[in-house]
From TrEMBL:
Domain 3-hydroxyacyl-CoA dehydrogenase NAD binding, chain residue ranges per copy: 17-202
Identification of the protein by name: 3-hydroxyacyl-CoA dehydrogenase
Organism: Acanthoscelides obtectus
Entry coiled-coil feature ranges: none
GO terms for MF: (3S)-3-hydroxyacyl-CoA dehydrogenase (NAD+) activity; NAD+ binding
Length: 302
């Protein structure tokens, strides 16, 4: 009996085809890391141009990984890049892209209504076995899952930017996520080389509940004129040992994403002063200065 239940659970948890929806900063990294460990990946974007951009971002990042992993062997490095790229198929039709999928990881814009529209469609198109996961930074996984008929096969897989470098994966289980789904997500996370922690479905899980208010406090400090952006960043790098200062990190995460997080939390928890959106960040978003990804935020990038 033990043998049978073990093998059933293993086959149910086997994940070899994954679909990543959204090929931006996060989705391209997730697709890359999964393909690098031998999985077949379908990457979905809204049009062919954005798919091409995602493929270029992946090729660039894979080049950096290969340079490190195969530093004395150029042909092994090239083989690794080519083989990994060949496992990633682009698609602009999300329903078609989930037809053979064992796991779907969604990494599209941080807006609940947009995620709902997508998951309603995917729920109808995907096989019953398919596990759905969101990479949301700040929304409730339960709220996202609420529009589907697979709440037991729905959880959170929260990666960190840059995905190929950051070791952590937050695995989020809601009150309705089944034990099998949770186990499959944890096993999958480990199999792609991440260190997994378990989180409840609370705002920002662990990292962002601490990080997002910290970034907002640093922005407010600069807005008050207490110190310059450069000095705040230098302070946190040299005084607290962080790899990036908070203003640099806000540029790196993307101001659209940051603002969506704060606006969402402020609406839900209006009395928490840590969640008040920052005026200078709102202005940057209005001007299209979203940070590193558009070439300008609090700093300029070339
Ligand atoms: N792909 C592949 N490799 C990459 C990479 C990428 N996109 N970005 C950096 N690397 C590699 C580099 O090639 C380099 O490799 P070597 O050690 O072989 O030289 C290594 O990472 C270090 O990179 P750099 O020398 O360019 O620069 P760095 O030392 O400043 O490191 C960093 C870059 C890893 C991004 C580091 O600055 C860092 O850890 N920053 C903080 C990042 C962070 O906090 N991320 C979390 C954001 S919050 C989030 O993601 C959650 C959310 O929901 C908002
Ligand atoms: P991004 O803007 O870089 O990428 C989002 C991509 O999704 C865009 O390329 C867009 O064209 C695409 N997209 C939008 N709607 C789509 C749809 N219906 N179907 C297919 N593709 C669609 O954003 P990002 O930084 O990659 O963030 C994506 C998600 O990951 C968000 O939920 C965000 O909160 C979360 N996240 C972001 C970070 C970060 O540091 N930026 C870290 C962890 C999690």
């Amino acid at each position: 009996i033990i043998k049978r239940s073990l093998s059933t659970s293993t086959s149910r948890n086997a994940i070899s085809n994954i679909t990543v929806i959204g090929g931006g900063l996060m989705g391209s990294g997730i697709a890359q890391v999964a393909a690098a460990t031998g999985l077949n990946v379908t990457l979905v974007e809204v049009n062919a141009d954005l798919l091409k951009k995602a493929e270029e971002r992946i090729a660039d990042s894979l080049g950096r990984v290969a340079k490190k992993q195969y530093k004395d062997d150029k042909s092994a490095a090239a083989k690794f890049v080519d083989e990994t790229r060949s496992r990633i198929k682009g698609n602009t039709n999300p329903e078609d892209a989930v037809k053979d999928s064992d796991l779907v990881v969604e990494a599209i814009v941080e807006k609940l209504e947009v995620k709902h529209d997508l998951f309603k469609k995917l729920d109808k198109a995907a096989p019953e076995k398919t596990i759905f996961a969101s990479n949301t930074s700040s929304l409730s996984i339960g709220d996202i899952a609420s529009v589907t008929n697979r709440k037991d096969r729905f959880g959170g897989l929260h990666f960190f930017n840059p995905v190929p470098v950051m070791k952590l994966l937050e695995v989020i289980r809601t009150s309705e996520t089944s034990q099998d789904t949770y186990t499959a997500m944890m096993e999958w996370g480990k199999s792609i080389g991440k260190v997994c922690i378990t989180c409840k479905d609370t705002p920002g899980f662990v990292v962002n509940r601490l990080l997002v208010p910290y970034l907002a406090e640093a922005i407010r400090m600069m807005e008050r004129g207490d110190a310059s952006a450069r000095d705040i960043d230098t302070a946190m790098k040299l005084g607290a040992g962080h790899p990036m200062g908070p203003l640099e990190l806000a540029d790196y995460v993307g101001h659209d994403t940051n603002l969506h997080i704060l606006e969402g939390w402020h609406k839900k928890f209006p009395d928490n002063p840590l969640f008040v959106p920052c005026e200078s960040e709102r202005k940057l978003v209005q001007e299209g200065k979203l940070g590193v990804k558009t070439g300008e935020g609090y700093y300029k990038y070339n």
